Amino acid sequence: MWIYFKRALLTFFLISYISGVTLYSLFFIVIPGVYNGSDVMSFLTGAEIIKSGNSEKLFDRATQFYYQRQVVYPEARFWLLPFRSPPIVAYLFLPFTFIGVKVSYYLLAVINIIFLLLFAHVASQTFNKLKITYLIFLAACVYWPFLTASIYGQFTPLLLLVLLVIFKNIKVKHVFLAGVFTGILFLKPQYLLIAPFVFFMIKDRQKYLQGLLVSALFFLVVNLVISGRALLDYPAFLVATEKISYGSRPFQMFTLYGLFKTSPFVRNISDWGLIGINFFIYTLTLFLFSRKIRPAEINKGFIIATLFTILFSVHALTHDLILLLVPILILWNGILSKKAISSYSNFEKTLDYQPGDESNLICRPPLEGNRGLLVRGGRHKIILFILYFLPLIIFLNNTFIAVLIIVAVSYFLMLSRSKKFALAEQN
């Protein structure tokens, strides 16, 4: 009886959630002129500057404001939504300058759906228990960070696909390709914080670095060719525009930096000082990660690495949490696998074991890539539930609780060696 009640309650909750986020998203998208407040406006501003031949002033606020008013003309513009991406992003948006803001906004939403379809297809080939592409797509499609990416005109679904490809290449030991794809995260530089974590997760670190350096060198050269010396102004420009007056909302960030910015205890510290504190904690965390996570613990390590990437990003809003879909799928696949693997015993029974079925006994030392302790699906489900519904905390208009949850989950996973909470690596 209790089982049926739980199923009915879960069904009601899921239907309510899907209906709620879908209607809320549609409400935003049909608002007249919503595209003028979206990040598409920012991307087109950078593209228009390059198109006009003034790329050397790409990160000049006065120049950006002038061209942004041209983008929205004949409507008035009284504030600047700055272009804060690398020059290559502005270059990629050049074709959009010929179709206007409105069409660009809705076209980008369609492109994001295509990226999500590709993500679901790659995921179905990556995880051995998640073979139904449309189910993955539907779960991702109603994930609140994806919907906010569409509402605000972001291209984070592309980077979600890149992150999954990185994970897939690590699993199949194509670490050079993993390094190359990691370099694509230069499109949003804060996502590169994951690279050192990946470095410590794998054994063939030299090949990973080679791939990363090839990709990084390519992006550096392209950005220099596009913007010239303007690229040198980029770091200072990012810090200068990390303010509420430029659309940056620290109280809505899922980051340690955002927590610092809204805390009364460190509010008087300069932005550079807070970034320094953030970097120090990041470095310390990276050291602990290198000591606690074994190279064979890819699943567990990648979940933790993704959480820390978001936590230590100076700028990470709701749409950036779309990266959590990769850890969510890792957990989902692990739950469906129902495997029990032990690093400490060579004679453990799997969860599928039936008396007389000796084929389900692990009678050998764990092979590379198979490390992990006994799976406890219940706790995996709790973490999966937290990661999937965590973004909804944004409706409280304060992410303090969400940041604390990310801190608790990520550090607990990294520091815990409990047999009750380890991830099976055979998935």
Automatic annotation (TrEMBL):
The chain crosses the membrane at residues 12-35, 88-120, 132-155, 175-200, 212-232, 272-290, 302-332, 382-413. It comes from the Bacteria. Belongs to the glycosyltransferase 87 family. The keyword Nucleus does not apply. Keywords: Cell membrane, Membrane, Transferase, Transmembrane, Transmembrane helix. One of its GO terms (molecular function) is hexosyltransferase activity. It is a multi-pass membrane protein. This is DUF2029 domain-containing protein. Its main location: membrane. GO terms for cellular component: plasma membrane. The keyword Acyltransferase does not apply. Pfam families: GT87. It is found in: Cell membrane.
